[in-house]
Design a protein that fits this description.
The protein is an alpha/beta fold. The chain is built from 17 helices and 10 strands. It has 2 domains: 189 residues, P-loop containing nucleotide triphosphate hydrolases (Rossmann fold, 3-Layer(aba) Sandwich), CATH 3.40.50; 194 residues, 3-Layer(aba) Sandwich (Rossmann fold).
Length: 389
């Protein structure tokens, strides 16, 4: 998703630029000011509470703001993204926005800050007061609002500077010139938006084959924990020696080892379009770990695709593979095969349910030809990439 926060003091031109950004990128507009004024006009309970605060230039209580924004986000979960105007306005609200977006398994793409000198701001706001007859644009209130911005809201900039998401833009000049600067930043930020796919499915469902094909077609980095661990074993590294007993049985290797390998792989491949994770996460704990690993690069899981194959077919496939050069140590015994399938049902299957709660999970029939299954999976990945951008 493309999520933008438009930042700047009162009178910086956020409303004008918001309209242009919305039209170009087809985003859902969330303006706390507009929503509050509508609530006041309709004399709702929320509007009555907010009326006196707004008319004196103060900031509305976070509890009210969260209700407004949460309602707007929840009712637009299929949106391609959001444009936030007037939020976050405090350091606390910056954290609130992080949490609200995380509920949609997404995050803020960039914060655009319109920079305008104080004298110009006052001039613009007083002119707007004459044209629109707005009670919150008196000289006294304007001074309060600008002071509020400088003492509270400007601190938010530091929050996003640390995350590398803050982009100041001069707000003086022709509207189209300012808009061009904003779109250049947005388009550059979009290139940093990764599509991250988790490929689920029991042993024998074809995840490895399909994962590699998908990665190649969509310029994604294929991350297979099994392949990385087998490489460590083959090279007889310290990690390899530790995980070899787990790999022979096909059981889950210690999380602290897998985390280091995945993090290293991600850091080396940040120029790709994203990542396909195969074999991870295999437990609910690992699902939380993966969320944490991706948030370190200001990203998140885009989509989860679950390849569904009947148990009897899985046993046939794994038994057949056990007779080839591609056999795994845990393919040679029917007992080990069954143990692995049971472990998948008991520990990994609940992880798919975890992601399904976020409406990010799609089940694909894995019983067709390799090309048929690939076509279904590729369609799911393309949809995920479109949604991510």
């Amino acid at each position: 998703m493309l999520n933008i926060a438009l930042f700047g003091p009162p009178g910086a031109g956020k409303g004008t630029q918001s309209k242009l950004i919305l039209e170009k990128y087809n985003l859902v507009y969330i303006s706390t000011g507009d929503i509050l004024r509508a609530e006041i006009k309709e004399k709702t309970d929320l509007g009555i509470k907010a009326k006196n605060i707004i008319e004196t230039g103060g900031l509305v209580d976070d509890e009210l703001i969260v209700q407004i924004i949460e309602r707007k986000i929840i009712t637009n979960q299929d949106a391609t993204g959001f444009l936030f105007d007037g939020f976050p306005r405090t350091f606390v609200q910056a954290y609130i926005l992080e949490g609200l977006l995380q509920r949609l398994n997404t995050s803020l793409t960039c914060m655009l800050s319109l920079e305008v000198p104080v004298n110009e701001l006052k001039k613009r706001l007083l002119e707007r007061a004459k044209i629109e007859n707005r009670k919150d644009d008196t000289e006294e209130v304007i001074n309060v609002r600008i002071n509020e911005y400088e003492t509270k809201t400007a601190i938010v900039a530091d929050f996003y500077k640390e995350k590398g998401l803050y982009h100041p833009v001069e707000g003086i000049g022709k509207i189209e010139d300012i808009f061009k600067k904003l779109t250049e930043i947005i388009d550059a930020s979009l290139k940093k938006v990764w599509t991250n796919i988790v490929l689920f499915g029991p042993p024998g469902s074809g995840k490895g084959t399909q994962g590699k094909l998908l990665a190649q077609k969509h310029n994604l980095t294929y991350i297979s924990t099994g392949a990385m661990l087998r490489k460590e074993i083959a090279n007889q590294t310290e990690i390899g020696k530790k995980v070899e007993p787990y790999m022979k049985k096909g059981t889950i290797a210690p999380d602290e080892i897998v985390i280091k390998l995945i993090e290293k792989k991600i850091k080396k491949n940040l120029k790709t379009n994203g990542f396909i994770f195969k074999g991870f996460p295999r437990t609910l704990v690992q699902a939380y770990i993966l969320d944490g690993l991706l948030r370190k690069i200001s990203s998140s899981i885009s989509y989860v695709v679950d390849i569904e194959v009947p148990t009897l077919e899985l046993i046939k496939r794994l038994t057949a593979r056990g007779k080839t050069k591609d056999a795994r140590s845990y393919d040679v015994s029917t007992d080990l095969i069954i143990d692995r399938l049971e472990e998948y049902e008991n520990k990994t299957r609940p992880v798919a349910s975890y992601y399904n709660k976020h409406n990010k999970c799609k089940t694909v029939d894995g019983m067709g030809t390799q090309d048929d299954v690939f076509a279904l999976l590729s369609e799911a990945v393309e949809n995920a990439m479109k949604h991510a951008r």
